[in-house]
Amino acid sequence: MNDSSATPPSSHRPTLILTGLSGAGMTSALKALEDLGYEVFDNFPLSLIDSLIKETAHDAAPVAIGIDARSRGFDPDAILAAAKRHNAELVFLWSDESTLQKRFTETRRRHPMAKDRPVSAGIKREQEWLHPLRATASHVIDTSDMSAQDLRRQLTSLFGLARGERMTVTIMSFGFKYGVPREADIVMDIRFLANPHWIKELRPQTGLDKDVGDYVRNDPAWAPFMQNFQTLLAPLLPRYQQEGKSYLTIAIGCTGGRHRSVFTTEQMHDWLEQQGYSSTTLHRDIGR
């Protein structure tokens, strides 16, 4: 869930204040923002926020400050005042009660507001205490059913393109025998191509080797497939970006993930670069 208010974009360096329920993913969120280029401060004393923002005012990097119930001097009203004072976007992370209960049980951590009471009591108390923050936040992110990668994508969509970046495309090869990548947004099956695995001298090689690449390229079905695949993607990629998506994963699979998918992934990477997209390659199963 993403409840976003109509807060106008800031004309100065982006400043985010992250808060929310204990166990809702603060640490993962700050790591994701750090990867996006934010200067991150975790569990920061509320009384020092003004000094921190003043000291970093001339830095180029945007700032993300994490404050939750662990933080010294934590107070919802003071956080709201600080966000308003510095024109900062307030990001509130939350999860449903059953998910939080499960997370605290699995990690065996104590809830910061339930030192001598059941976890459920601490969750309820914190929900009530932080309600004004959730109601006022610029962005409310529900992490109940999110993996760390899902949360990273959500934050990238919200805050990555705000700095004028183009969408980053990860093009991944994989083997169907090892399972379809869960993080894939688009999956393409190329097991219809002739398989170099059955050629004795090609079997120990990979799609990064010239002989394997030539073999795959010489399959009469390969060139028409590539043309049609690129024709399909060309109008889709800008639409994904317009929808606020700044991180897209395209997975290309063959049987074992060593030959056909690896070569095709490398060729698609070159095409994406020609189209002006920042792209990275990942060969998940090439070493298996």
TrEMBL record:
<dbReference type="GO" id="GO:0005524">
    <property type="term" value="F:ATP binding"/>
</dbReference>
<dbReference type="Pfam" id="PF22740">
    <property type="entry name" value="PapZ_C"/>
</dbReference>
<feature type="domain" description="RapZ C-terminal">
    <location>
        <begin position="167"/>
        <end position="286"/>
    </location>
</feature>
<feature type="domain" description="RapZ-like N-terminal">
    <location>
        <begin position="16"/>
        <end position="159"/>
    </location>
</feature>
<dbReference type="GO" id="GO:0005525">
    <property type="term" value="F:GTP binding"/>
</dbReference>
<dbReference type="InterPro" id="IPR005337">
    <property type="entry name" value="RapZ-like"/>
</dbReference>
<dbReference type="InterPro" id="IPR053930">
    <property type="entry name" value="RapZ-like_N"/>
</dbReference>
<feature type="binding site">
    <location>
        <begin position="68"/>
        <end position="71"/>
    </location>
    <ligand>
        <name>GTP</name>
    </ligand>
</feature>
<keyword id="KW-0067">ATP-binding</keyword>
<keyword id="KW-0547">Nucleotide-binding</keyword>
<protein>
    <submittedName>
        <fullName>p-loop ATPase family protein</fullName>
    </submittedName>
</protein>
<dbReference type="Pfam" id="PF03668">
    <property type="entry name" value="RapZ-like_N"/>
</dbReference>
<dbReference type="InterPro" id="IPR053931">
    <property type="entry name" value="RapZ_C"/>
</dbReference>
<keyword id="KW-0342">GTP-binding</keyword>
<dbReference type="InterPro" id="IPR027417">
    <property type="entry name" value="P-loop_NTPase"/>
</dbReference>
